[in-house]
Task: structure prediction
Amino acid sequence: MDNQNKIDYPDTTKEWKLIEKVVTGLQDEQRKSRRWGIFFKLATLAYVIFIVMMVGKTTEGAVSGGNGPYAAIIEVNGVISATEDASADNIITALRSAFDDEQVLGVVLRINSPGGSPVQSGYVYDEIKRLKQVRDLPVYAVIVDLGASGAYYIAAAADEIYADKASLVGSIGVVGSGFGFTGAMEKFGIERRLYTSGEHKGFLDPFSPENPEEKKFWQSVLKVTHNQFIEQVRLGRGDRLKETPDMFSGLVWSGEQAVDMGLIDGLSSTSQLVRTKFNSEEVVNFTRQPDPWESLVQKLGASIGVGLATVVTAPSLQLH
Result:
């Protein structure tokens, strides 16, 4: 009777061992995941610290490194604009630092720029002339790939200008550009409603028909700015210029052609110029460096999309 009523329970030892093995395996995986997570976090932190240190060294090295008298190098790279690296504030700050340094034998402007704002270029030009009155320090300009328009405006303030035989030099002209959408608006049945106080307040509006009288006025503004540019080039270059009807037309020439025209004084690289003019190989880069944290953000890619929000509203004058 007892044997008949006895219930046989299955042996669960194997199942429990399997469950225990699975749980243990999951715990091991979690431990590994945590260890790898800590490792990657520490590696990321080390990378950030390394970048900060390298940026700091780069910034410090920008104004150090000479073992005696040296030439000061100042870069003029990219578009000349108040919001770019080649702004008047940045260039002038570097110029003043170089002129204040008693170890500096002379300044070399290393230029690679298509030009930009006539105002920013004019500020730099005037400051070079002012600083030379304070301290008689030679200033040379070396054009690398491109020294056009506003960049040439700045170079004209130097005592002498040099370039490579294939460099592009000149483009002494002024551009005031914009767009006209009146035809497209008419095609799509769009009505423009512009309210102004002042007869010509909206004369640069791209959605309004062009007025011949206002076009003539705008051309006169460009002409005045162009004449200012020409005057400063003549003042800087003096009788070295061999003027032709095309010289101030906005055309650009090779370095080899520019020598014959008197736009530059010869063909030379920066290092060659330093050896020739200063009998030295010592150079120190005085170019103003961006803030280390700003550089770090850019290196980490956070600067993607900068400028996408820029909206063209009205034409601005550009030396191109």
Summary: The chain has two domains: 15-61, 68-298+312-318.
